[in-house]
Amino acid sequence: MIFEQLSGNLIQGLVLGAVYGMATMGLSLIFGVLKVVNVGHGACIMVGAYTALFMFKQFGLSPLFAVPVAMIIGMTLGLIFYYSAIRRLLKGPELATLLATFSFGVILEETIKQLFTSEVVGYNWDLPKFDIGITVLSLSKILAAVGSILVALLLYLWFNKTRAGMAMRSVVEDDDGARVCGVNVDWEYALSFSLGIGLTVTSGVLLTMFIPVGINPYMGGPYTLKAFVIAVLGGLASPYGAFFGGVVFGLVENGSYTLFAMIPGVEPFAMTRFFSFVMLLVILLIRPTGILKAK
Amino acid sequence: MKNTEKYLPVIPVLVAYAALLAYGVLIPGKWQIASQLAFYCALGQAFNLFMGMTGYVDFGYVAFLGVGSYGMALPIYHLSDKGLGLWLIVIGIFLAAVFSFILSLAVGAVALRLRGAYFAIATIGVNEGFRFLIEGARIWNGSEGLLFFLHMRTAFGKQTATAISNYWADGMVFAVAIVAAIMTLIYMRNKVGYALTALREDEDAAKVMGINVTKYKITAFITSAVLAGILGATAWSLKYSYVYPSDVFEIHYTVEAIINVLLGGAGTLLGPLVGGIIYGVSKYFLAIILPGFQLLIFAPVIIAIIVLFPEGTVGMLKKKVIGTPLEKYII
Amino acid sequence: MSLLRCENVTKRFGGLVAVDDVTFEIKHGEIMAIVGPNGAGKTTMFNLINGVFPADEGKIWFEDMDVTDFPAYKRAHLGMGRTFQIPRPFSSATVQENIAIGAMFGASGSETSTDMAMEMADHYIDLIGLKEHRDKPAGGLTPIEKKLVEIARALAMKPKLLLMDEAMAGMNPKDIDEMVVFIKHIRDTEGIAIVAMVEHIMRAVAGLAERVIVMHQGALLVDEPTQKALTDPRVIEVYLGKPPEDEHA
Fold it and tell me: Are A258 and A203 in contact (CB under 8 A)?
């Protein structure tokens, strides 16, 4: 009975983990290329969630259509923010970019609050559900996971098979070296930042396909925390590390939820969130450069 | 520099707080706004002691105010009928300091071994993590929080309880602000301050100079946290007679702390005071003109300051007064 | 008794062996130069000596104390001072404060109050001749002035060993000669051993060092008195490549 419940939850965790992984790739991309930590990460996810919600409620469009729209919105926001602030702060102390991305998140939250109020909302995308014996998986969850894997794959191909992708990778390795080889490093920075925010906003759409409720302007906080746990699991600067970190985190999160639920007098939902904070500290304590990293 | 000369900058700080206090006491109906401004100044002074002096950002700073407010709430809630009288407040302040000390030591021991970005990442979940621990494990009444309005009356009597909430609590906020400012100046004028300046500028070079950077970072972190804990105990618990985990771990207080420090000038003594007053006054008027828009206006202001005036108001003033007699007073 | 002894010290970065099984000694009050082309492992060697990062293998002894596992700040307390290739003064602090920080936290730091440190700083400011800049933030100085402030800051630490990373890079011959005189003066008055790292200014090496260590691709190639080292065919090979006849051989 308990084993069945646990394995059912772990399957859910695996599917959710793929989405988590994709939701962290943008964070890792930005850190890898620019060495900037996007503290407003969760707020970008929130913008994606509202994109899906708005298109669904206003035009009756399936969240799948929200994916490209979210990418465009995210990339635009990223470009604007890069050129108005980040670019001038890259040479300054770390404090500057940390505070700037943090404020960027607050701006997104407060803007959405003004546009949509701070009411907690959700949408209901009625797709068939599959009962696989130990758990029930809806088609929308499967689509979210497949979509995440696809995006991750596309990013991989882009990095490894296209000129533009390779130029960006050269900046990750050594920005001075890339500069000498004729790579326009400033443009690579802008592009990476914009792509990173684009990916993150897109992941917000995919996340609502998994969890279509609880959407509100301040929903991003827990996702920022989770994303950092995932990112440090995968080594912070590696988008693929982040993807696999996401899968691991999805499993751990759902597994620990099941276990906490068995302890009497404990709120499993809140404890799971506390647990992700403890995980973050423990990983940083043991190995700040990432546990899943090969080297 | 002679010792007396070293500590001259305390004069403008004391004058400013005295003026703010006089404004609240002497002009009828202004006590609340004066004490609210003092809260922002105290929050900034305490936060600056760590962020301003080390260049590290603690995004979970509000957690220290949060555990501090529990430190005050718990003895009042549980011991109100024991006839301890005003000793309860002393116990509360002591517990607030102990709680924030323990939390900051635990977080600092892990996070302060890490550099800039990793430190910030480690702190980002502290407030939420602690809130969910209290709610999840149902510690200290869990998500229902502690409501101790009646306990205050039992413990201190109706009149005293009202006076504590309306005046004493605010008075203690002034005290925290002044103590935090004096601590900052003492640090600045001693080895701690020079060590912090060095590590803020270049941590590797500081190590090579013989500076045990972890020790000094933890010193600043704990001092700043304990002041925050006492601030939470007085400005929240004593003043409002309740503590809800969803309120006292609310991240926007961290945002306010950052704004206060940046507006005034990170790492300066007068900065948080000036920043707290600018922020408090503009927030007050914004609440009248554009209710609900405060954060939407202040967040871009943070970015604008970082990009355009990273030294803040006092930082710029400091440069202006070099070579004038004022030089000795403004740091 | 030697002042510093490195025994079979090795450091790897990933697959690259930056310092490869290096062994040497430095005596009290000696001036030694570490020479080698770019990428020879000189800076890594410095970082290993003063503990910026730990060695993968080997031991480091300072006055017969095993300091292999000591963090940088503890080695500074024992008497190691250091300057950087690109000067790294604490920009927002004044020249006087920069130097005083060295005095406050260096080898005699525990007995030095902040006031004493400021007085000591004034002494070193006179020594480097930057009196008029005493109260200016160090960030606003010229590169050569920054370099001097850094040297003064390291001297104020009262070290027994001073590691100077490319102290003369980018200077013209006249400045180099002055710097050589200045470094020798420091050694004679303060009695400290000096290890100067030099990429390829042989003029400076010849005038300054009593002994030369040549590094090449992470390994120690030559450890000889200066004149002998500079004429050693292996050293010439490192800098100029093999003579043509060898290629045919």
Answer: no
